[in-house]
Amino acid sequence: MVIERDLLISLLKLTKDGPVLVENVKRDAKITMSIARKLLEKLQSEGMVYLNQDTVEADSYSRLKLAVKAVSTGSDMEYVSNMLRWQEFEEIAAVALERNGYTVAKNVRFKHAGRKWEIDIVGCRKPLVICIDCKHWRHGTSPSALKRIAEAQVERTRALAESLPNVSLELECTKWEKAKFAPAILTLMPVRFKFYDKVPIVPVLQLQDFLSQLPAYTEALKYFLKEFNHLRHDF
Question: 169: domain range?
Answer without folding.
Answer: 87-227
